[in-house]
Amino acid sequence: MQTKIIEENKPKEEKQNNYKILTNCPYCKTKIIKKGIRKKKFENIQKYYCKNCDKYFSSQITKNKTYPLKIIIDAITSYNRLYPIDKIPELIKDKYGINITSRIISDWLKDYNQYAPFSRMRDFVSKKYSKKEAIEESKLIHQQIYDFKYHRAKSDLILNEEFRHYKFKPLREFLELAAAECPHQIFQSPARRCSEFKTMFNLDQVQIVPKNNTAVKVANFVMQAVSNNKMRHEVLQDFMFSNDTVTVAIEIPVLLNSDDIKHYKHQLNFEIPITLKDEEYITGHIDLIQIRNGLVYIMDFKPSASKAKPIEQLTIYALALSRLTGIRLYHIRCAWFDDKNYYEFFPLHVVYKLKKRKRIPREQRKLT
Predict the structure, then answer these.
(1) E strand spans, the chain
(2) Tens-place pLDDT, residues 59-88
(3) For the chain, which residues make up each domain, given as ranges?
(4) pTM score over 0.90
């Protein structure tokens, strides 16, 4: 049986969403073609043409803006990384050779505040944490380079603000030591990857729920500043990590061993169709971890999310994170998204199956 998709919750396209990467005409919705480049002062803009409407247009995200979107994003991110606003023009000048002012950055923070809500928390954070204390960053050499980042300040605020999040204190303790105590030799040696396990689990009781989630809007915004597809993950992860109010870590290393699998199978009676030999491991790196709405969210950016179904991969991430932190699988939710769609599910529904109660005949019920 295929997994169930709850269609009634499927996100509807916003009526005035001008921030999409253009593939269809915004006027008649027919397919469009690229038609030349318009030169601006600091960048070149892709122009589009609709044969049906006989109109030319471009993406509206930086309409009437002099500066490229990637510079705007860098400035906003630098501000939310606790750089003084009067120091950011110097950073932009060194990186891009372009002069901007603090006043321009202030205007950008107002214009794009829907994508960077952390700016509302920034003043409080900056009084309590230095730039170095607020964020922990490490490069993990695990066959390839992973940029692990942990937002200590954001994590503290989330856990202390709401009582229902206090039970996730073990997650904070794990993230504090994730880079320092990670068994790097296991990740550096050949091991089975979480992404290798496909079509193995019984997904009969899994419900995939499409939702309107801020991650889609943010991805749509950020993707328009990325010209190299290989950089999509890195740029989006860093933007969400630095600028939203719920992403507490990115590129988190997790692993499972044979004892973990046995524990889930024999102690918890989970249905896990995986067998590991002694000293054999499954390893992976979680794209993003968020804490919101009384749950821990394991998030994965997947281009063409509507075609992807990384349920097994995300479930193994959840099993590993649960074992490493002691947080119940019941409190973990998994999701994947791109710049158009967002889907989520409970990993508990993948591995724990509700048993159907046997119906007792009416005659026997009378006797009892």
Answers:
(1) 4-5, 33-39, 44-50, 55-57, 135-142, 144-151, 192-193, 207-210, 247-257, 281-292, 295-301, 332-337, 342-345
(2) 655 556 678 889 999 999 999 999 999 999
(3) 4-8+130-351, 68-112
(4) no
